[in-house]
Design brief:
The complex is a heterodimer. Chain A is mostly helical. Helix content of chain A is about 75%, strand content about 0%. The longest helix of chain B has about 35 residues, at about 10-45. The radius of gyration of chain B is 25 Å and the shape is globular. The chains are: A mainly alpha, B mainly alpha.
Chain lengths: ~280, ~325
C-alpha cells in the first residue's frame, strides 16, 4: 500500500515539475513581448543581446497610443464586437434551444447543416460578398457584423443544445400551463439557467470578433477599421522602418481586454467548456 | 408543406414545428445572407473572367479551374497547406494529449496550470505572429538566448530563415490549449475503476494508456483530427507576419510570403487583393472548399473504423 502511495507522490512531483517547465516555456514569448515593449529600438539589434532593457522606456506605451490614434481604433473594435456578440450569442442560444426542445422530423438534417458550415472556408463567403457589395457601392457598413452574428457559431450552437438538454422539461411545462408564451418561457426560465453557456459563448464571440482581420480589412475604410487591422500592419516610422518595441506595446494594449476577461471568468469558462464538450 | 401536413397533423406537432422555426429564424437569416448567397455568387464569378475592373465580363466556363491545375505556384500552395495541416494537427493533438495526461489526476495547482496552458489560445493570431517574429529572432530572440545559455545549441539559429514552416508550426505547440481542454473532458469520461482493475491486474502506466485510455477517448481524438484539418487548411495570416523577409511598415499584407509557407488562403488573398484576379482567386478558394469537403466526408465515413464505440463492444 505504501509503495503505491510513494509512487503516486513521486508521479505527482514529476508531473508538477514538468508542468512548471511547460508554463515557463509558454510564458517566454509573452515575457519577450513585454520586455521588448520596454526597450529602445537600437537595443533590439544590439549583439550580444541583453535580456533586460538598460532602462525601461515607458514612453513606448505613450507612443503606441498616439502614433496610430489608438483610441479611435479601440472604440471601433468595441463597436464591432458589440454588434457581433449580441446577435451571435442570442442566435446561437435560440438555435441551441430549438434543437434541444422542439425536435421535428427535419431537425437532425438541419443540425447537420449547421455543423457542416464549419467546413466552409471563410474566404469562400467573404470574398464574393466583398466583390458584390463593393460593386453595389454598399461599402463601409458596420451592420454587416450584425448579420455575421446572426449566422451564429456552430460550436456554440452545439454547446447550447447540450446545456438546454440538461434542463428537465418539467421546468417549462408548468410555466406553459400558466399561459406564458414561447419567449416568456425562454427568457424567464430557460435563459437564466444557462449562464455558464452564455459566458463561454460570449468569450468565444468576443475573441473571434476582436481578432478578426479579414472582414474589417475588406469591408471597412480606415476610418471605421478595427484594432486587429492596425496590429497586423504594425507600427512604423516615417521611413517605414517597423518599430517593433512600440508594436509590442500596442499588442499589450490590444490583448489586454481579452486577457482580463479570460482571467476574470476563467473558472466558469473552462468548467463550461469541459461540461459542454463532454456529452457530445 | 404537403408532407408535413400529411404526417404531422397533430396540433402538438404543429406547435412544435412553429416553435422550432421561430427560434431558428435568426440563424436561418444569417445563414442565407452570409453563407448561401455569397457562396452562389462566388461560384458564378469563378466561372467568368472578372477582375477588379468590372468591364467586359464574360462567361468562360471552367477555364479558371483548368488554368489552376496547370499553375505550379498554385498547386504548390495546396501542397504546402496540406503539409502544414498534417504537421499542425499532429503537433497540436500530441501536445494537447500530453498536457491533458499531466493534468488528469490530482495535483497541487491543477486549476492554475489548466488556466495557464489554455491561455495562449486566447491571444489573437494577428498578435501571435508579431510576438513570435521577435521571439524567434536569430541574435536577439529569447528562444536563442535561452538555448545558447543552457548550452543546448552553440550559437543562435535563424529559425525563420532556416524553416519558415517550422517557425509557424511552433505556434501549434504554443496554442495546444484547445486540444488539451477537449482531452481533459474526454479523460474525465473514462471510469476510474477501469484503471484500478487494470493496475491490480498488473498493467503498467503505458499499458493502461494504450489499452484503456486511448480506445475510450478515440472518438475525441477523431473529432480533433477533423476539426484541426478544417481549420489548418484555412491558415491565412501567419505567413504574412511570421516570415524571414524584412517587413516594411504598413506593407505587411502587400508582400507575398515565401513559397514554403504560401498557404492556399494566403495566396488566394494575394491573388484577389494584390493581383486583382477576382475570378481566378475564387476558383482557387472553391477548390479549397471542395478539398475540405471531400476529405471531411471521407474522414467521417471511413476514418471511423478505428474509433472505439459501445456498439462494437456488444458484438
Amino acid at each position: 500500500m505504501t509503495t503505491i502511495q510513494t509512487r503516486e507522490r513521486l508521479s505527482a512531483t514529476f508531473r508538477f515539475i514538468a508542468l512548471v517547465i511547460i508554463v515557463i516555456v509558454i510564458f517566454l514569448p509573452l515575457v519577450s513581448m513585454v520586455v521588448t515593449s520596454l526597450k529602445r529600438m537600437d537595443e533590439l539589434y544590439r549583439v550580444p543581446a541583453h535580456v533586460l532593457p538598460d532602462a525601461a522606456v515607458w514612453g513606448n506605451y505613450g507612443l503606441a497610443w498616439t502614433l496610430v490614434n489608438f483610441g479611435k481604433y479601440l472604440l471601433n473594435s468595441i463597436i464591432l464586437t458589440i454588434l457581433y456578440i449580441v446577435p451571435a450569442v442570442m442566435s446561437s442560444a435560440f438555435a441551441g434551444y430549438a434543437f434541444s426542445r422542439f425536435q421535428v422530423r427535419e431537425s437532425r438534417a438541419i443540425f447537420l447543416v449547421v455543423l457542416s458550415t464549419l467546413m466552409i472556408p471563410v474566404m469562400v463567403t467573404m470574398m464574393p460578398l466583398y466583390m458584390v457589395l463593393a460593386r453595389a457601392q454598399f461599402v463601409n457598413q458596420r451592420g454587416l457584423w450584425f448579420v455575421w452574428g446572426l449566422a451564429g457559431i456552430p460550436f456554440i450552437i452545439f454547446l447550447f443544445r447540450q446545456f438546454f438538454s440538461t434542463i428537465p422539461a418539467s421546468f417549462e411545462e408548468s410555466a406553459r400551463m400558466d399561459g406564458a408564451g414561447r419567449f416568456r418561457v425562454f427568457f424567464s426560465i430557460m435563459f437564466p439557467l444557462v449562464q455558464t453557456g452564455l459566458i463561454v459563448a460570449s468569450i468565444f464571440a468576443f475573441q473571434w470578433s476582436w481578432s478578426e482581420f479579414l472582414m474589417p480589412v475588406l469591408f471597412l475604410s480606415d476610418e471605421k477599421s478595427s484594432l486587429a487591422v492596425k496590429i497586423v500592419m504594425g507600427y512604423a516610422d516615417q521611413k517605414e522602418n517597423v518599430l517593433y518595441n512600440i508594436g509590442m506595446a500596442g499588442i499589450v494594449y490590444y490583448t489586454a481586454p481579452l486577457v482580463i476577461v479570460y482571467f476574470a471568468l476563467q473558472k466558469r469558462f473552462v468548467a463550461g467548456l469541459l461540461a459542454g464538450g463532454l456529452k457530445g | 408543406m404537403e408532407g408535413t401536413r400529411r404526417i404531422g397533423a397533430s396540433p402538438l406537432e404543429r406547435h412544435k414545428r412553429t416553435s422550432f422555426y421561430i427560434f431558428l429564424a435568426p440563424w436561418i437569416i444569417g445563414f442565407l445572407l452570409l453563407e448561401v448567397v455569397p457562396i452562389i455568387w462566388g461560384f458564378q464569378i469563378s466561372l467568368t473572367n472578372r477582375t477588379s475592373f468590372p468591364v467586359a465580363i464574360k462567361f468562360v466556363g471552367l477555364k479558371n479551374y483548368l488554368t489552376l491545375f496547370q499553375d505550379s505556384e498554385v498547386l504548390g500552395s495546396y501542397w504546402v497547406s496540406f503539409v502544414y495541416t498534417i504537421l499542425n494537427t499532429l503537433i497540436g493533438v500530441v501536445t494537447g494529449f500530453i498536457f491533458a495526461l499531466l493534468l488528469d489526476r490530482e495535483l497541487p495547482g491543477r486549476g492554475f496550470f489548466r488556466t495557464i496552458l489554455y491561455f495562449p489560445y486566447m491571444i489573437p493570431l494577428v498578435a501571435v505572429g508579431w510576438i513570435f517574429r521577435i521571439f524567434l529572432e536569430r541574435d536577439t530572440g529569447f528562444l536563442n538566448i535561452l538555448l545558447v545559455n543552457l548550452h543546448i545549441i552553440p550559437s543562435g539559429i535563424p529559425w525563420m530563415q532556416n524553416s519558415p514552416m517550422g517557425s509557424i508550426l511552433m505556434l501549434s505547440f504554443w496554442q495546444a490549449g484547445w486540444s488539451m481542454i477537449i482531452f481533459l473532458g474526454a479523460l474525465s469520461t473514462v471510469p476510474r475503476e477501469l484503471y484500478e482493475v487494470a493496475t491490480i491486474d498488473g498493467a503498467g502506466y503505458g499499458k493502461r494508456v494504450r489499452h484503456i485510455m486511448l480506445p475510450l477517448i478515440s472518438p475525441f481524438i477523431f473529432f480533433q483530427f477533423v476539426m484541426s484539418f478544417i481549420y489548418a487548411m484555412q491558415a491565412f495570416i501567419q505567413p504574412y507576419i511570421l516570415n524571414p523577409r524584412p517587413i516594411r511598415g504598413n506593407w505587411v499584407m502587400l508582400n507575398p510570403p515565401p513559397n514554403e509557407t504560401f498557404f492556399v488562403m494566403s495566396r488566394a488573398y494575394y491573388i484577389i487583393t494584390g493581383q486583382h484576379k477576382f475570378a481566378y482567386g475564387l476558383a482557387m478558394l472553391w477548390v479549397l472548399f471542395a478539398v475540405v469537403l471531400v476529405f471531411t466526408i471521407l474522414f467521417v465515413k471511413f476514418g471511423g473504423f478505428w474509433v472505439y464505440t459501445e456498439a462494437d463492444e456488444r458484438k
